[in-house]
Amino acid sequence: MQADDLQRLLTLKMPYGKYKDRLIGDLPGHYLGWFAREGFPKGEIGRLLELMYEIDHNNLRDLLIPLRK
């Protein structure tokens, strides 16, 4: 994890798929779980999806509340 990754979860939108244009930090857990089973994409999007999956899976979404504007 990089220093600004948590903030990126709340500013970067999903570029494709069923939840296109939704913030990565707002993606539903079942969608993140699908990526965990099928494989995360390469690059920054995949890294952030994997981080969001871990946050959701461990019930830590409240960590993002202070970062929301």
UniProtKB/TrEMBL annotation:
Pfam families: QSregVF_b. It comes from the Bacteria. This is DUF3820 family protein.
